[in-house]
Structures are given as structure tokens and as C-alpha cells.
């Protein structure tokens, strides 16, 4: 695929994503971080172009890695302020996907590099690996179903390094019998964490107050 074709493909994906001006979604949030016992939570997810994003659950803000499960990728795609590089093809989950690397052209961007794995026919981003200046590297995998026409996933799985995880207040460590207690910093060092959001419904382009992002 020539550079021009890569640009065309991204343009088509941007057009698809551009249709969604805002949404409110409901879903379940599952957090899997070493040493932490965190129950599955029901959440409301809010998004408004270009980059406002918030996840709320009963009893307060949900538990997320800094910079993870955000719409940085969405914001980058819709602004178009990047240089796209053709990186060939790769097989992910049994699907042959187009690989494109995005280098932001703006010096202020927190994102250093994003690698996208794209289903060309469906115009869907199935996987994205993003390296940031402030919040480390995280990987997002998206599964699509009934909301695919909007470019919105049924399920998002984010894997991240737990050293970039902001430990929630009031959360205690769970030790197995015989395990030696260690500091929070040591426990989270060089470990992988995972966050999964399974969406039940989306209300798309209904409009809502900016107050939900404050």
C-alpha cells in the first residue's frame, strides 16, 4: 500500500469517526491489577468531540491508568495532525490487518507514537499501541459488534504497565498466604495491568452538558 493509499484509508476512518459528535454509554468495567481486589463496576462513559472523555461509576470516578482508556487516539484521528507511515500487515486474532504508524506533527502532543492495526474493509481500528511522554505505553484492543457502523466498540481491553497506574484511595493490597508484604511502589513495579470495558448501550449525538467532564 503506497503512502497515498495509507492517507486515503485514514481519511475514510476519520470520516466514519467524525459522525459521532458525542455519546453517553453504559457498560461494565473490570480492572485486573496485581495485588488489588477490585470488583466489576457498572459505569457511564461520556465522550464529546474532540477529546473530552469521562468514565463515572456509582460512588465516584472509576479506576483507570493515567492516560489509558482515553480518546487520545480518537482526538488524534479527528484532528489529522500526524504523519502516517505504512508498516505493512500483521495477523491479530486470526484477522489480517493493515498496520499504520502515526507520528504526531504537533510538538505539544503527549503522544509520541501510535501503531494502528486496521480492518481495511470494515474501516475499524482493531488494536492500537500508544507510547506517551507522561503516561508510558499502553495497548488497546477493540471488539466490534452492534455499534460497528459508528466505529464504536462493544468491548475495549487496555493493557498497561502498573507503574503508570494511579493507585485509588482506600484500595488495599491482597496478599496470598505466605507472601511477603511489599511497598505499593514495589508491588506495582514492572507488572502488567488490564482494564476491560464491555459496553451495553450507546446514546449517540444526543447532546449533554459539559458539566459531566468537571
What does this structure look like?
The protein has helices at residues 3-18, 72-79, 184-188, and strands at residues 22-32, 41-48, 52-57, 60-61, 82-92, 95-104, 111-119, 124-132, 137-143, 155-161, 192-204. With 214 residues, the chain is mainly beta. The chain has an eleven-stranded antiparallel sheet with strand order 4-3-2-1-11-10-9-8-7-6-5. Strand 6 and strand 7 (111-119) form a beta hairpin. The protein has one domain (3-200): outer membrane lipoprotein receptor (LolB), chain A. The chain contains three helices and eleven strands; from the N terminus they run H-E-E-E-E-H-E-E-E-E-E-E-H-E.
Q: What is the H/E string?
A: HEEEEHEEEEEEHE
CATH class: Mainly Beta
The name CATH uses for the topology is outer membrane lipoprotein receptor (LolB), chain A
Helix content: 10-25%
Terminus-to-terminus distance? 43 Å
Please give the radius of gyration in angstroms. 18 Å
Helix count?
Answer: 3
Oligomer: single chain
Task: State the CATH architecture.
Answer: Clam
Structural class comes to mainly beta
Main sheet specs:
11 strands, antiparallel
**What does the overall shape look like?**
globular
How many domains make up the 3D coordinates? 1
Report the uncertain regions: none
Mean pLDDT: 81
Task: Please describe the topology of this protein.
Elements: H1 3-18, E1 22-32, E2 41-48, E3 52-57, E4 60-61, H2 72-79, E5 82-92, E6 95-104, E7 111-119, E8 124-132, E9 137-143, E10 155-161, H3 184-188, E11 192-204
Antiparallel strand pairs: 1-2, 1-11, 2-3, 3-4, 5-6, 6-7, 7-8, 8-9, 9-10, 10-11
Amino acid at each position: 500500500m503506497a503512502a497515498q493509499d495509507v492517507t486515503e484509508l485514514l481519511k475514510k476512518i476519520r470520516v466514519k469517526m467524525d459522525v459521532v459528535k458525542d455519546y453517553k454509554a453504559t457498560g461494565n468495567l473490570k480492572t485486573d491489577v496485581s495485588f488489588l481486589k477490585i470488583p466489576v463496576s457498572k459505569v457511564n462513559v461520556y465522550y464529546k468531540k474532540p477529546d473530552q472523555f469521562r468514565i463515572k461509576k456509582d460512588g465516584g470516578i472509576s479506576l483507570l491508568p493515567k492516560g489509558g482508556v482515553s480518546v487520545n487516539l480518537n482526538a488524534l484521528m479527528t484532528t489529522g495532525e500526524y504523519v502516517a507511515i505504512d508498516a505493512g500487515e500483521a495477523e491479530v486474532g486470526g484477522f489480517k490487518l493493515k498496520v499504520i504508524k502515526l507520528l504526531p506533527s504537533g510538538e505539544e502532543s503527549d503522544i509520541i507514537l501510535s501503531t494502528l492495526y486496521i480492518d481495511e474493509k470494515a474501516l475499524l481500528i482493531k488494536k492500537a499501541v500508544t507510547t506517551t511522554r507522561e503516561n508510558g505505553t499502553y495497548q488497546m484492543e477493540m471488539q466490534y459488534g452492534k455499534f460497528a457502523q459508528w466505529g464504536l466498540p462493544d468491548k475495549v481491553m487496555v493493557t498497561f504497565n502498573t507503574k503508570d497506574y494511579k493507585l485509588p484511595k482506600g484500595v488495599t493490597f491482597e496478599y496470598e498466604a505466605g507472601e511477603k508484604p511489599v511497598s505499593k511502589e514495589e508491588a506495582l513495579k514492572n507488572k502488567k495491568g488490564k482494564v476491560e470495558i464491555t459496553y451495553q448501550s450507546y446514546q449517540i449525538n444526543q447532546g449533554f452538558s459539559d458539566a459531566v467532564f468537571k
